[in-house]
Amino acid sequence: MCGGGHTALLEVKDLKKHYYSGLFQIKVNKAVDGVNFRIEKGKTLGLVGKSGCGKSTLGRTVLRLLEPTEGSIIFDGKDISILKGHSLKYLGTRMQIIFQNPESCLNPKMKVYDIIAEPLRLHRLCAKDKELERIKELIEIVSLNEELLFRYPKELSGGQLQRVAIARILSMKPELIVADEPTSMLDPLVQAQILSLLKGLQIKFKISFLFISHDIKVVEWMSDEIAFMEKGKIVNFKIVSR
Ligand SMILES: Nc1ncnc2c1ncn2[C@@H]1O[C@H](COP(=O)(O)OP(=O)(O)OP(=O)(O)O)[C@@H](O)[C@H]1O
């Protein structure tokens, strides 16, 4: 996948994200320091490396949740590293992130129904009279019972919350998902169920993944190719054979 041939959905070239701190911002932490990779449509690139090597920073910079310091991010043939304002909002539906802790992105004051409906309303993705039908479809795709729609996040288990977070982002029909340690807070059985769900969704909707984890076994199971990261750089790539 990093070699070329097919057109990539995402191509990252010499990407850098440096954090500046201290008096006059002279201290620099080169969290991402010249990274190159590509991900084809419907494929998964796994990203592994020790804590603090820059995985999350890389994932967030690719999605433009963080401002890149240098380099380009080509998504579907377009350099998105320079986009601003409205164009970024549109991009926000095509690229999504799943976090380690779903609670951090689910509003505790909202019922599950509204959590999933919010992006539909915000981006006007569904007519009002079709909303209920679409939400029921989404909750079924993530294998949750419809009765959970009228509960609050605190009434759900960790695995159920992650499924709600997944249903919420699926409402936007993403083409690329950055999954940042999406199952590392879950017990092994639930972890396996969520990973299977993600794989199934990938096949069904041809979604590409940047799958971040410190757990090489999980990454091997999920990925077509693995990138090994150390101190802000990708030091090796490995194709996963099946
Ligand atoms: N908002 C920030 N401001 C300044 N420095 C940051 C910020 N976020 C991360 N860093 C630093 O950037 C480096 C990379 O951190 P990052 O969280 O990207 O690594 P990681 O590989 O995802 O680690 P983990 O597996 O523990 O999440 C670390 O030195 C970290 O302290």
UniProtKB/TrEMBL annotation:
Keyword ATP-binding attached: yes
Keywords (A to Z) from UniProt: ATP-binding, Nucleotide-binding, Transport
Hydrolase in keyword set: no
Protein's GO biological process: transmembrane transport
UniProt domain ABC transporter: residue ranges: 10-242
GO molecular function, one term: ATP hydrolysis activity
Family under the similarity heading: Belongs to the ABC transporter superfamily.
Protein name as catalogued: Dipeptide/oligopeptide/nickel ABC transporter ATP-binding protein
Species annotation: Methanosarcina spelaei
